[in-house]
């Protein structure tokens, strides 16, 4: 028997990271000592108190029943308290929904609101889920918003054709460009969404991974944001628990309600024990200041960042030190696939920018989620290659 995929599945481009993982496997099978600076998955461990909490909550037999689809009340309360401490934003429990990772929430938000043919504004370059898992799988039309270096990798709202757009995705601190924004930009985004009747989906997955004193804002800090926006946050990168799949969306009650409605028909929410762990993890914040372990993590990451940026500058690819995320977005002055292939020839895997969209061409994303000695080794190989 031959089974045909649905048309929307056939419209999906190949999942870039799967291709890269395949290439990395091949190189490793050839015995190459490969340094992978391509996938955005932290190598640092979760803090010990989170591991302890996981053990304790898994061992509790009461934590193995179905969750409420919207998430357990104590989880939603913990998220509301975290928003107050971290961003000084007041939210009620019914403005929070628990997610199996923010990726899931981003995809299901479109399911709740995007009809076939609806236009969805997606940054280009971007995390591929906005265009693919979200828009294409809802038979929507992804309309790229170019993120250009001369605009600080922010969309130019004056140039966007907003007609018939139903939804817009924004993501800062940004993957892949590592750009950050201030509240003035967020205010413009909220006004644009309000004036054009567009649902604003704000992806804040990297809000806690930041350096040199930079603190990422929440879109919900902006006046009027609660009327148009839903924000996605995740414990994945904050607590180095990407595999545990626990995140949340917060914001406009109707938008949170729509997403919850989809989830009640699809997955019934994250395991209760991960939500209990999240309650303990978020309680580590005593104020807007990051807790000690996070300060240490971010210090380690910033040292690696400095090593990489210095090396790239030395070999003719100067780039700014990112204030957040664990990515360096480097202008590779040419074809990004060729640049990535060149680095792969010396056993360093990076992600060609074109994989994140047409406007990512000419750039590469280099991740610093490897121990410092591997970053130093990668830098030495890159130095030899270009000098
Ligand atoms: C911009 C962005 N948003 C969301 C996610 C998804 O994170 P998670 O589903 O683990 O919360 C990622 C993961 O790499 C990301 O880069």
The CATH topology of the largest domain corresponds to Aspartate Aminotransferase, domain 2
- Indicate the overall shape: globular
CATH class of the largest domain: Alpha Beta
Helical segment count: 13
Rg measurement, Å: 21 Å
Oligomeric state of this protein:
single chain
Placed side by side, the strands forming the largest sheet appear as 2-8-7-6-5-3-4
Task: Please indicate the count of domains.
Answer: 2
Question: What do we call the CATH homologous superfamily of the largest domain?
Answer: Type I PLP-dependent aspartate aminotransferase-like (Major domain)
Beta-strand portion reads: 5-15%
**Terminal Cα separation, in Å?**
56 Å
> H/E order of the elements?
HHEHHEHEHEEHEHEEHHHEHEEEH
Low-confidence stretches: none
Task: Spell out which ligands are present.
Answer: pyridoxal-5'-phosphate
The biggest beta sheet is recorded as: 7 strands, mixed
Provide the helix percentage: 25-40%
Mean of all residue-level pLDDT scores: 95
**DSSP strand count:** 12
| Category by helix and strand content | alpha/beta
CATH architectural name of the largest domain: 3-Layer(aba) Sandwich
